[in-house]
Amino acid sequence: MGHIKGKRFAGILAVGLLATAGTGVAMAQGGISANLALSNTIFSQQVSGLDGEGAAIFVGTDKLRDSDVAVSKLKFKKAQVTDLCMAAPVKLPGLGDKKFQMKVPGQNFSADNLVIGAPGLNGGMTLVKPQIGVDASQLDSNAQPGQWGISASEIHAFDQKIKATSISADKLTAAGSQVSVVDASKADC
Questions:
Q1: d(CA 181, CA 43)
Q2: Which of 88, 143, 150, 173 could pair with 43 in a Cys bridge, judged by C-beta atoms 3.0 to 4.6 Å apart?
């Protein structure tokens, strides 16, 4: 009675957070009713490298529980991420402020049709065959016509720090992932 298995709890929490992120992007893309709101959690991602094919960046909104937030939508037909570290603040009854943390070392994270809602991102990138100032509705059928966007056949990003409200993909692979819930002050990312 009263015993919580740490690995089971972390696994359940990880699945819940990923499902919430995927639901948010599906909602933002019109796949789910717009009255379904995200959790109001803005989480962080750090990646040492991201190589993407069929890249698009355009402005839009994600609907949080209490309000809408302006985001850059980052969309990739195929993405390969190197050294992912993702963390989300959580408040657990009786335990206080913690961080959910998922680390995927090396080139073990890949996704098909990856979409990230990002209120902020920092880092370097190289775009191959970029088109800047494209109407976002040409990049995504659910984007608002007349919104600003960038398209490129490839993107090579490095040392990215991303604040995200949502993530979704048709397929996501994270081999060798390390999932944990840690004290907020002890998180790696």
A1: 14
A2: 88
